Amino acid sequence: MTALIFTxxxxxxxxxxxDTAGHELNLGMFFYSSASADLNxxxxxxxxxxxxxxxxxxxxxxxxxxSGEVSVSYTPDSTASFKPxxxxxFFRWPGAQxxxxxxxxxxxxxxxxxxxxxxxxWNSYKTDDSTAVTVEVGGLLGFQGTWTQFGDSLSWYSVKSxxxxxxxxxxxxxxxxxxxxxxxSGFLDLKRVQPWFLFVKENSRWTYxxxxxxxxxxxxxxxxxxxxxxxxxxxxxxxxxxxxxxxGNRRAxxxxxxxxxxxxxxxxxxxxxxxxxxxxxxxEWALEADLxxxxxxxxxxxxxxxxxxxxxxxxxxxxxxxxxxTATALYSPVENVSAEFSVMSDLDTDSPEPGxxxxxxxxxxxxxxxVSVEWEHGSTILGMGVSAWID
Amino acid sequence: xxxxxxxxxxxxICMDRLIALSLLLCSCAxxxxxxxxxxxxxxxxxxxxxRVQLVGDWNNWGGITGVLGLVDPSCGIMETRNGVWVGSVxxxxxxxxxxxxxxxxxxxxxPDPLNPERADFGxxxxxxxxxx
Lengths: 391, 132
Fold this sequence. Notes:
A: mainly beta; 24-stranded antiparallel barrel; 26 strands; globular; B: alpha+beta; 2 helices; 20% helix; 30% strand; elongated
């Protein structure tokens, strides 16, 4: 396996990158391999889980973007499979950058931003095997529109405004078969505060959310406090709350406090708070806690000294009645080599079963290698991985 | 040492004060926040890391085979300056709200400790960047 890695590393350095006037050609390759063994069964169980090579190339001009990446993977039974990871060809009208169209596979995945957490998370739709056709238009008063069709059942579209002088707005939509999700989002710049809004329409049902940003009642040389009220309304349930964020201006610390409650007969409040400090001694402290209306409590306290060449730290997590502790030792004998050993255990049981994890990572230019040993519940798993790339 | 502890005169008081002062100084260094390193971009203090990457919604979280898939180790690489890893977000991001995190040694996600605004990504606590 080592010989294979170095052979591939040499091959990688034979890749090419050219940049001439108006044209750019990039060729590269990425290699990844991992292996694992159950040490209780002996080292002879060491087997390659994954062996993948990703050659890729792209060509860019003022009027066209072409790119392609394939994967060649070998499974443990030594059968090779060849599959396109992504490919795309996009053409723009010469001289009009915002009129264009293209086709792609595996390059685009629908995603909808929200106020913090997204409305629709990445990978919510399976598009890997679907050819996507994209059309982009723009220029009319600065508005830009994009429409992408995946196969015959999924489409993703958006129209975004330019900066209007007092704010910006964006309309997004995803339609899959008969299900439709649309959002209208944006913000207004009222100088002292910026109201951000998000209207979500999911199958004819609207939810209206808004958050005031930029209100800083405390702005000093030591710290700033921003308070952001939030409200969310829909037909079935509504909620309101606020978050206070604390920023250290000269010192390395930050904190937050959030309180949210339903606007119903039963308020169902939820609280979250946290504090992070990087101390003068180099210790990073983190304290987090959250409590919801059914009095489910989660608390976490950690302190880590992550200096080089050696460091250590610990974390205590409390979930209602269960208590879990983790102790970690760090060692970095030379630059770009990192070793981390952790022992974790539940502390609230009569017979705690501690688990251990040892991870060693080394980086040398474009080559990364890692070894891990995980011991938990009587089983010991050895893992190894290596990756290399060239641009 | 016994003489010191049993001494009831001024020396004992001095010892108490010395211990108290030592504890105070020690606790200051341990708990008092350090001064921020001046930098235009994102920074993350992890001197013993072999590699730190700045990944987020703008770069598919480094996924070479899709988000949460195999991570491209060349994506969002941060540079180390005396143990502080420094990186930057792209200049041409649209206005909006983005999540991001520091990926240490290709295995562990950490939120930005200097940014208190948090969100979730794939079960990990990550940070939020607002561009207006």
